[in-house]
Amino acid sequence: MNTVEKHLATILSHTWWVLLLRGLAAIAFGILTWLLPRISLATLVLLFGAYTLVDGILGMSAAITGRKEHEDWWVLLLWALIDIGIGILTFLAPGVTAIALLFYIAAWAIATGMLQIVAAIRLRKVITGEWWLVLAGLASVVFGVLLMAQPGEGALAVLWLIATYAVVFGVLLVILAFEVRAFGRRLARP
């Protein structure tokens, strides 16, 4: 492993908890959505906006932490900025229709999913378990495409799909976090 890869691995092993928090936030969002199936569209908009803002802020932290050690830190930063942008857009237009919300969510899922796949491919020689990030990215892209294919159903009609996606994505990020943590521990051994 070269010096750059070792630095990136060290950063990832120190910030594994950011992936864990992002995964737990996604799981919490999904469970709250399951437990409150009769929530209004406005509440769904606010929950989604809050989730994407938190996810984006945590992602930005991870990207900025690793910017000096790895040239591909910008992929993580772009992913985080898309999350933040969609979160802000969601709060600026809370009266958005169900179809517009679906397209917000679908565009966000496709864009972040593609960036997650790119990040996993770029990091495949540095980390183990990168395929978990590929699976999370693929889940995001498939979710976004499904939402775009069925916009007439409305946000409340796909509530269970949104919740399921959030929980699956969150579980995949939690698994990835522990894989990264274990990898960092293996690197730290003399």
Characterization of the model:
The chain has 190 residues and is mostly helical. It is 81% helix and 0% strand. It has a single domain, classed as Serine Threonine Protein Phosphatase 5, Tetratricopeptide repeat (Alpha Horseshoe), CATH 1.25.40. It has helices spanning 3-14, 16-35, 41-65, 73-92, 98-123, 130-149, 159-188. The longest helix is centred in the C-terminal third of the chain and has 30 residues, at 159-188. The model has no long low-confidence stretch (mean pLDDT 81).
Properties at a glance:
single chain; 190 residues; mainly alpha; Serine Threonine Protein Phosphatase 5, Tetratricopeptide repeat; 81% helix
Structural class: mainly alpha
Q: How many domains?
A: 1
CATH topology: Serine Threonine Protein Phosphatase 5, Tetratricopeptide repeat
CATH class: Mainly Alpha
Q: Helical proportion?
A: over 70%
* Low-confidence blocks of residues: none
Per CATH, the architecture is Alpha Horseshoe
- Helix tally equals 7
Largest sheet: none
How many strands?
0
- Backbone CA Rg: 17 Å
Question: In brief, what are we looking at here?
Answer:
The protein is mainly alpha-helical and 190 residues long. The protein has helices at 3-14, 16-35, 41-65, 73-92, 98-123, 130-149, 159-188.
Break the fold down into its secondary structure elements and pairings.
Blueprint lengths: L2 H12 L1 H20 L5 H25 L7 H20 L5 H26 L6 H20 L9 H30 L2
Helix pairs in contact: 1-7, 2-3, 2-7, 3-4, 4-5, 5-6, 6-7
